[in-house]
Amino acid sequence: MLPDPLCDGFGRDVRYLRVSVTDRCDLRCSYCMKEDVTFLPRNQVLSLEELDRLCSAFVSLGVRKLRVTGGEPLVRRNILSFFAAMGAHLRAGRLDELTLTTNGTQLARHAQALAACGVKRVNVSLDTLQAEKYTRLTRFGRIGQVFDGIAAAQAAGLRVKLNAMALKGVNDDEIFALTDWAAAQGCDLTFIELMPMGDIPAGTRLDQFWPLDDVRAHLETRFRLIDSGLNTGGPARYVTVAETGQRIGFISPLSHNFCNSCNRVRLTCKGELYTCLGQEGSTDLRPILRAGVEGEALAREIRAAIARKPAGHAFGYGPCAVAGQMARGMNHTGG
C-alpha cells in the first residue's frame, strides 16, 4: 500500500530530499566559507548508517528524488556504501532518481562506482575556466582535477550539468566562455544567483550579487534563448540556446522565487531538517534517531516537521536578513 503523501500545510507534496553527508570540503571557495573554517566534531555528524536510516525513512514516506550534497560529499570516507544503500531503493522502484552535487575534484576516482550504484547524472560546480582564477576563487584548487572529473563522469555514462555561480566582478567576463565550453562538452549549464548565506561578510555578497535577469540579458546579446517548459524537479527555469541546442538554467531565489511550487527539503549532516533555508528554524532529528526511534514513530516526527514548512522564503540583502541567513551557514546545509 502506498503511503499518504508527505504533504506540507499548503498542499505541496514533498518528493525531493537534499541530504548533506558532510560539512567538510577539500576547497575553500571564497563565496562559501572562510579559509580557516572550523568543521564539526565528528560525533555531531550522522554516521553513514544513521544517514541511511533517515533517508530510507523519507523514501518510505514518498520522497522520489534524492540529491547528495556536502560540503564535498566525495571526501567522506566510505561514502560509496551510502550510495550503494540508496541505489537499492532505485532498483526496488522506491526511488526515481539518485543524484550528486560535487565540486568535481574527486569525481575521476569515483565516477565508475557511482554509475554502478545507479547514479545517472551529476551536477559539477564550475564558476570559471581560468586556472589561476579558479585557484584564487577556491583558494587552492586545481582546475585540471575538475576537467578530469567531468571527462571521467561522461566516460562512465553519467550526464553532467555544470553549475556556475553568477559573481559580479569575478566571472562576469566569462559568461560566453562558460556557455561555449559547456556546449562543446555536451553539458547543460545552470547559472545560480548568489544567496546571502554562509560565513562570509555581508558586504562581500552584496558587491558580488548579479541578478540573473541581467545575466540572461547579457547572453541574449549573442544568443537567441527560447523559453522551455522543462522541469527536472528542481528550482531552475530553463531556456534552449537556438544556436547550439544546449539547455541553460537559471536559479534565482532572490529575483524570482519559486516557493509556490517548492517540493524540496534539506537534511544536514547533523540531522537537522530544514524545510526552508530562507526561514529560521529546523527540526533536529539526530536525538530521536540516536534514541533508536524507528518506523511509525520516526515517520510521525518527519511528517510533523514537513507540516511546518513555511509558505515561502525570506532571502534578502538587508542587514537583518543577512545576519539571520549567514548564521545558518551554506556548507553545513548542502549549499
Structure characterization notes:
- This protein is an alpha/beta fold.
- It has 11 helices and 12 strands.
- The protein has a 12-stranded mixed β-sheet with strand order 7-8-9-6-5-4-3-2-1-10-11-12.
- α1 runs parallel beside α2 and α3 packs parallel to α5.
- The relative contact order is 0.16.
- The C terminus is likely disordered.
Short description:
This protein has 335 residues and is α/β, with parallel strands linked by helices. It contains 11 helices and 12 strands. The chain has a 12-stranded mixed β-sheet.
List keywords for this structure.
335 residues, disordered C terminus, 12 strands
Largest sheet: 12 strands, mixed
Percentage of residues in DSSP E strands: 15-25%
Low-pLDDT windows of residues:
317-335
Secondary structure class reads: alpha/beta
**Terminus-to-terminus distance:** 35 Å
Strands, count: 12
Any chance you could write out the topology, listing elements then pairs?
Blueprint: E1 16-20, H1 48-60, E2 65-69, H2 79-91, E3 97-102, H3 107-116, E4 121-125, H4 131-138, H5 143-155, E5 159-166, H6 175-185, E6 188-193, H7 202-208, H8 212-219, E7 225-227, E8 237-241, E9 247-251, E10 264-267, E11 272-274, E12 283-284, H9 286-290, H10 295-307, H11 319-328
Parallel strand pairs: 1-2, 1-10, 2-3, 3-4, 4-5, 5-6, 6-9
Antiparallel strand pairs: 7-8, 8-9, 10-11, 11-12
